[in-house]
Amino acid sequence: MARSDGNAAKYVYGVVRAADGSPPKGRGINGEPVALVTLEGLAALTSDVLDEVLEAGRDELLTHSRVLERALEGGAVLPMRFGVVMPSAESVRDELLGAHRGELEAQLDEMEGKVEINIKGIYDEEAILREVLEGNPDIAELRHSIHGKPEEATYYERIRLGELVAEALTGKSQQDEREIVDRLLACALQVEVGQAVHERMAVNASFLVERDRLEQFDRAVDQLGEEQADRLRLKSTGPLPPHSFVELGMEG
Amino acid sequence: MATAMQNRSTTLPYRGGSGYVARSSSSGLYDVLELILDKGLVIDVFVRVSLIGIEILTIDARIVIASVDTYLRFAEAVNRLDLMATETQGLPEMMEGITEGGAESKTKGMLQGAKEALFGDEDEGEGDRERSTSRRRSTSATTRRRRRSSSGGNSSGSSSSRSRSKSRS
Questions:
Q1: Which pLDDT score, from 0 to 100, does residue A6 have?
Q2: Spatial distance between the Cα atoms of B150 and B144, rounded to a whole number of angstroms
Q3: Which end of chain A is more exposed for a tag (fewer CB within 10 A), N or C?
Q4: What is the pLDDT of residue A55?
Q5: How far apart, in whole angstroms, are the C-alpha atoms of residue A140 and residue B78?
Q6: What is the pTM of this model?
Q7: Which alpha helices (H) appear in B66-153, and where do they start and end?
Q8: Cis peptide before A24 (omega within 30 of 0)
Q9: Which one of B37, B39, B84, B155 would you mutate to disrupt binding with A, by most A Cβ within 10 Å of its Cβ?
């Protein structure tokens, strides 16, 4: 039951500059205090874990995210993916901070003053299906031909209808994704376009935004949201640490 | 949530006000889940968490997205559209109209539904129930059974209706 024990296994949240790392406030996973493990200019945000295998529950995931978000208020943060546990503070120093010093320092410099904003857009079901019918006479016709008939008698036609709708939706989302990403990228530095995780998702993209331009970015999102209000709903999440824009290479 | 909002408002003068865009910090787990699990720095050899359950769930859901099931749900949804001038409403359609409220939840993304079953609704603060479900989530071997039981149990109905009212608001 060691607390903040140098020999305890360390859950690692992310990497910051040691100079920015005033002792972290708040608690980490399982209520353990968040502590810095430092090596020269670099510091890892860690907390002790007792178990060999960590649970990936709701609380653990949220805690990971919140520890990073708090740290982001103090300066650049390089977030770790959820679930990295290193056997000891020494291992954090040697195998993370030491072994990857060059790329960690370079990315901390690069990410200074920048945050990630994730934008998701979900179509309004009724509005987008109407668009699909209006823009595709063949789909409208197929719908009309089976409308009101018993389900059992039109099973394969219904599958075909749904398939055509799904295809049309994919086409729409590709077009909308391109437009939305282009518009917002004008106020951002980089974009990482993710997969749709919902069948009515038009866009799922993370943008790297300078804090100085966050207001401009937000306004652009609002404007898009207003323009698209009758057919899709935008959701903006952030500012987040730059999850989508950091990477550890093979160095070390 | 409250602290995150305060922090944001002190550092950021403008975070929108048009009402057309939903904004949140990372406190909405659903919105950051893929980032936390798929992105960021990682040293593979030190990943000590059993995420197998989540991966299976994600793969399942993506298959479902392009399945007969999805097609049938889309077909049902277009069939329920009331195309006013183009069709005269018969009794069957009127009946469908009554149950129309259910259509959206049926065509709601499987992944979202599955995630809700796993993680609960995205709102924070509902402590005990979520805690107890996450407690059971410790080993990969029981993942499938747990997923089945959590989505088939009494939590799924309430979480889907909650989510529907959220998306409407």
A1: 59
A2: 10
A3: N
A4: 74
A5: 9
A6: 0.73
A7: 68-80, 91-99, 101-107, 110-119, 127-135, 143-152
A8: no
A9: B39
